[in-house]
Amino acid sequence: MGLRNVKPLRAGMFATFEGDTITVSQALPISSEDFEIGIKDSDSAIDAYRKVLYSAIEKRIPNTGRVGVLVSGGVDSCLIAKLVSELAAEKGVEVITYTAGLANAPDIDYAESFVHDLGLRHRVRKLSIDEVEAYIPKVIRAIEERDFIQIEAGIGVYAAVEMASQDGIKIIFSGQGPDELWGGYSWYPKVIAEEGYQGFQQRIWSDLERGDIETLDRENKIAMAHGVEMVFPYLDMEVIKVAMSTSPRLKVSSKNGDIGKLPHRALAEAVGVPETYANRPKDATQHGTGIHNILDKIAQRNGFTPELVEDIGYTSQQITKERLGSSSRYGYLFGEEELWTIPSHIQLFLDVTAYDNSLLNEQQRARIEQFLQKAELHYENLSQF
Predict the structure, then answer these.
(1) Contact 84/57 with Cβ under 8 angstroms?
(2) Are 354 and 360 in contact (CB under 8 A)?
(3) What pLDDT, on a 0 to 100 scale, did the predictor assign at position 297?
(4) What is the predicted pLDDT for the residue at 334?
(5) Are strands 66-70 and 94-102 parallel, antiparallel or unpaired?
């Protein structure tokens, strides 16, 4: 059709066409100013949260059949699994839990232990390095992104949802949302130390606003690629209202650092999630599954090394300036920079993987080809020694 500069509409947006003019607007405009901080004690926060979360889960469980739950062994997924199992039992709906990651990854061990204690059916996929590599182009194709953080976070989810699809699951529950709502990221206490609770509140609201492009689009696209609907009860509007009306001082109590999400963790313990899981420190999905470190090995065994990107002058910013994750947008500034900075040699490997699988547009292909030509010269020079 010859269309150029095509852009997707973000979640919650609609476009109006009038002649040659296109106007993009929010379907349901909301801002942080819409929420007054009216919940200022822990008991009130927990009670209000319990009520809206039960409702958010109950209305997403069908009346017959079975549902899936993604379980990592952290508080977010364990609380969802616990409540889904209770409410599904009342409707006679079967619950199957799913976990994927490298063998001996933390998520595998915690999830297996938790689900065993809960007495639910559990399917686990333990990935080899070759299987992780094979999933990379599949994930890029499904989520239409090759950003390092998006790919490393998506591989474990893709493998888990793939199992659910094979089981005939049509609805799967995700535990995404509490980190932004209740202050779960490891850098939030340092944000409080430097920017105060007002700065912290602004940060979590900004992270929540970007949840669609940084998390939900990825998860939804993976689910849709397998014919599954993924649901996010923590991001039900009534849950958001309670969380954003709760004093930020109740969420992270010390600027010197704690595990955060205090009302969220307290509710988990109150409904019977064992303390081991309710107070497990936050791990990013890609770290808990073991995917983060293995991508470096995969890139380097394919010839993509730090020395290569330095020699050819590649940086990921030359391909795209957008950072799809709060960790890479600003979290790294508050510590653990090496953990959260995008390694250029891995990003180049992902760029080339997308190139080789014809997953780039013409403009993107041209940019990557420039670096591929430089890389060929690099290896020709090395072969002379």
Answers:
(1) yes
(2) yes
(3) 95
(4) 63
(5) parallel
Measured in whole angstroms, the distance separating CA 213 from the mean position of its chain's CA atoms is 10
Q: Which of 152, 145, 267, 160 is nearest to 212 (CA)?
A: 145
Question: Is residue 6 a part of any domain in this protein?
Answer: no
Degrees to nearest 5, angle at CA 217 with 214 and 221: 140
193 part of a folded domain = yes
pTM comes to 0.90
Question: Comparing C-alpha atoms, which of 295, 285, 292 is closest to residue 99?
Answer: 285
CA dihedral sign, ordered 184, 323, 104, 293: negative
Give the domain extent around 372. Answer: 13-383
> How many CA atoms lie within 13 Å of 194's alpha carbon, on the beta-carbon side?
10
Lateral strand order in the sheet of 121-127: 121-127, 94-102, 66-70, 171-173, 229-231
Note whether residue 4 is domain-resident: no
Burial of 321 (0-12, 13-18, 19+ CB in 10 A): exposed
Helix (H, G, I), strand (E, B) or coil at 230: strand
CATH number at residue 256: 3.40.50.620
Q: What pairing do the DSSP bridges indicate for beta strands 94-102 and 121-127?
A: parallel
Structure-token match 């607007």, residue found = 25
Rg of the chain on CA atoms, in Å: 22
Number of domains, the chain = 1
Number of helices and strands in the chain (H, E): 20, 7
For the chain, the maximum distance between any two Cα atoms, rounded to a whole number of angstroms, is 71
287 lies in some domain: yes
Question: Which residues of the chain are modeled with pLDDT < 50?
Answer: 1-3, 285-286, 382-385
* pLDDT for the residue numbered 335: 60
Contact between residue 219 and residue 364 where contact means Cβ atoms under 8 Å apart? no
